[in-house]
Structures are given as C-alpha cells and as structure tokens.
Design a protein that fits this description.
The chain contains 4 helices and no strands. It is mainly α. The radius of gyration is 16 Å and the shape is elongated. Keywords: Membrane, Transmembrane, Transmembrane helix.
C-alpha cells in the first residue's frame, strides 16, 4: 500500500449488477433491458 501512496497511483473500481451479465455497465441500454427485468438480477 505504501507503494501506491508514494507513486501517487490510484485505482478506481466500480461494479454493479451488470457484472453478472458480463457485458459492461451500459448493458441495459445496449441490450434494451427494462428496469423491471434488470432488478431481478439482484435476487
């Protein structure tokens, strides 16, 4: 961890339900998934 601070290197990691589909964070738009169907992934 010291190396990251000293090198002034940062890493941003984000994730969500889209990870389950493996198609990226714009999956709802690209695949035309309606919110009601997308919510089912949370179960």
């Amino acid at each position: 961890m010291d190396w990251f601070s000293e090198a002034r290197y940062g890493m941003f990691v984000h994730y969500g339900l889209f990870i389950l589909l493996g198609l990226g964070e714009w999956v709802m738009n690209r695949e035309r998934i309606v919110p009601a169907e997308y919510r089912k992934l949370a179960e």
